[in-house]
Amino acid sequence: MHEPAGSFRRHGVEATPEALRRLRHDLMAWVLAAGVDEARARDIVLAAYEALANVADHAYDGAGPGVVDLDARAHEDRIEVVISDHGQWRTPVVDPRPVSPRGRGLLLLRASADRADIASGEGGTVVTLTWDLDPVVP
Q1: Which ranges constitute the DSSP H helices of the chain?
Q2: Phi, psi of 53 (to 5 degrees)
Q3: Angle, CA of 22, 115 and 4, to the nearest 5°
């Protein structure tokens, strides 16, 4: 399937570490090819990968790895990444350690993106991440 130059689409990707790492690398290549500078590209891929990892951790309750869809689009003034799952959000397990490395994913998403919208319902969760781009000055 041919994709428009300004879009990147991967649907039905298994929410497993190996598949998500490949998806992360493919997304980085696409973001860089879209003309985004490397520092901003790293922010985009970091936040997108965190959202993907959250799918693997939270969306599918022991019923297999489940799948995730990723749609990214380069607009003239912004990059938008939409990550969707088809599972049910699970209540996170409380980590008894005083300083836990877990539970900071949503903070990371919001800190890395200019906008992070999360909608969860019966059909799954949709995370929409947006980064503003500097206008191109001739």
Answers
A1: 17-33, 38-54, 105-112
A2: -65, -35
A3: 50
Give pLDDT tens digits for 97-116.
Answer: 565 444 556 667 777 889 99
φ/ψ (deg, to 5) at 81: -125, 125
- Neighbouring CB atoms inside 10 A of 93's CB total 10
pLDDT in tens, 19-49: 999 999 999 999 999 999 999 999 999 999 9
Reference 127, options 75, 50, 62, 74; nearest CA is: 50
Taking the C-alpha atoms of residue 7 and residue 68, their distance in angstroms, rounded to an integer, is: 17
Amino acid at residue number 13: V
What pTM, to 2 d.p., does this model score?
Answer: 0.81
